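Subject: design request, 223 residues
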């Protein structure tokens, strides 16, 4: 019979998500960012000391503080709902009714199972039903949801759902092609493989429209 620790390892090593939403506690923002940085700084210092690192060395002295600030303000900054970009939309006055595709959006995220980088490209598209969104806002939405401990399937869905809500249409699609360093640099150590996920809403479920979108992006992603 598999024990709980083995089960948790099985979930993590096979990169299986057990939650459709990011598993964030209700009290996640009960303390300030500065307080979080101080607590994480001490935790990182403890980890490095346990590993045997000399934190009096000039190269290492600032590492705990740098890592803590990076966690809170950068790579996990998307956990904070106050940092979600305002997805301003506008009337589609020029009546553009075809597909709009923003491809090759650079994506940096972090695998929630091993806290190692996910690096790739997101390709996003929508068909206006009366509203349009600024192109840079699409990039910012991808960046916001990527900046948290993630699984790629969830990230793909969150990007589509956010754009659907902002644009007031189901006609949104997203494909992500990314390398996971938890696969490429540890475990199986397969440096060539990448992971592709997709979410198609509304008209993008139609085979012809889906194929048009996929033809646009061609999935010739370079890393």
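Subject: RE: design request

Done. Sequence follows.
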């Amino acid at each position: 019979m598999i024990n709980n620790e083995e089960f948790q390892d099985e979930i993590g090593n096979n990169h299986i998500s057990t939650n459709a939403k990011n598993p964030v506690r209700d009290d996640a923002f009960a303390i300030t960012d500065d307080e979080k940085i101080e607590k994480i700084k001490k935790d990182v210092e403890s980890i490095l000391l346990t590993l045997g690192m000399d934190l009096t060395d000039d190269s290492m002295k600032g590492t705990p503080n740098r890592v803590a600030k990076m966690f809170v303000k950068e790579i996990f900054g998307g956990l904070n709902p106050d940092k979600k970009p305002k997805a301003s939309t506008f009337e589609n006055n020029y009546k553009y009714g075809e597909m709009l595709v923003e491809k090759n959006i650079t994506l940096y995220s972090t695998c929630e199972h091993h806290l190692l980088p996910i690096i790739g490209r997101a390709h996003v598209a929508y068909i206006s039903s009366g509203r349009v969104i600024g192109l840079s806002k699409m990039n910012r939405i991808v960046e916001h949801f990527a900046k948290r401990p993630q699984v790629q399937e969830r990230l793909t869905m969150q990007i589509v759902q956010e754009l659907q809500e902002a644009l007031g249409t189901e006609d949104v699609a997203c494909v992500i092609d990314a390398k996971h360093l938890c696969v490429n640099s540890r475990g199986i150590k397969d440096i060539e493989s990448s992971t592709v996920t997709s979410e198609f809403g509304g008209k993008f479920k139609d085979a012809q429209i889906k194929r048009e979108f996929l033809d646009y992006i061609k999935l010739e992603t370079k890393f």
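The longest strand covers residues 99-111.
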